[in-house]
Amino acid sequence: MADFYQNGIITTLHNLESRDIDDLESELRSFSDRRPMGLILPSLFSELEGKALPDIIDHIAKVPYLSEIVIGLDRANQDEFKHALSFFDRLPQRHRILWNDGPRLKALDEELQALGLAPKEMGKGRNVWYCMGYVLASNRVESVALHDCDILTYERSLLARLIYPVANPQFNYEFCKGFYARVADGKINGRVSRLLVTPLLRALKHAVGHNDYLEYMDSFRYPLAGEFSFRRDVLNDIRIPSDWGLEIGVLSEMHRNYSHNRLCQADIAHNYDHKHQDLSLNNDQGGLSKMSIDITKALFRKLATQGTVFNTETFRTIKATYFRIALDFIETYHNDAVMNGLKLDIDSEERAVELFAQNIMKAGSSFLDNPMETPFIPSWNRVASAKPDVLECLKNAVEADFEEFKGK
Q1: b/e for 113-143, b at 16 or more Cβ within 10 A?
Q2: Entry's Gene3D superfamilies (predicted)?
């Protein structure tokens, strides 16, 4: 049972009563008349063959208030796309699949590449960006949620609680970030958020001083959660990062575009577990190691846009401050785990902190060596100004794929 405490400068909507799902969905159905709702599912084809996504789709098939479901499908050939059409056909809601590796969407991507307006690398950011474009093009929903396809503990209540703040016509929220306790199999998870992001934000506060952005970021209970929801108009202006800094980048964009009282976070699940990335101690181009570098650079870039001056000495100070704060957090998490009968391996926690400390310096060096690096994908408003028919082209490509291959 959560408390009602409001921390930081972002409104927190708690799970105080474990509200009945039928009651919650009934209210959402009533909202849908005035504010139609949609869902974005960025997926790899391999997830269709895993354990999580089939269960997720079984749950979503019972959701009564969704007007549209948009699925972004990566790493799929023609036979796999046809299989995906059959796989998602159990959904009674209107749904469309973006076959990102198909010839039609690849041709559109090449047009945008020629204009310098397309995502530069494959990944979740690119997938989400094209899905957002299709939501704008179809113009069927006013509020939309997004969550990952590898959630092993999925319940319909997660989606209902995630979309509720931006679906309720009496609320003025443009954006909602989901949060939850990362506890599964008798241990505390969420290493990057616990051992990198939170202590790094606290270290940056020491190094940079009082800063509204850092206070804002530190207000989120789980800033790396892949679940968020937003009003449709948000999609026009938001710039999506293409690397592992996606979640941090989205939060940074919302800070740039909206006042704090238009943003919130909601407790969406009692239990949450998904596939886990390897720490990648010896490979900073993969796993949690690369993730930590991308996330750290995203924070440095944002602070630099606000006038913070970084140099090698600054990064050394940040690293030293981070290291001390993170080690103190390990003791805190260990005590929390013991009191709740959970396990926490102090040795592996300290190894992660040592890796993240090294990667803070790597991120700093990369930032200084490439100050003009811009991993953000352009906003759809910008793309539409350069190619006015882009959304219509995207919609037509998706519909043509659907019509050509459905039933085959």
Answers
A1: eeeebbbeeebbbbbbbbbbbbbbbbebbbb
A2: Spore Coat Polysaccharide Biosynthesis Protein SpsA, Chain A
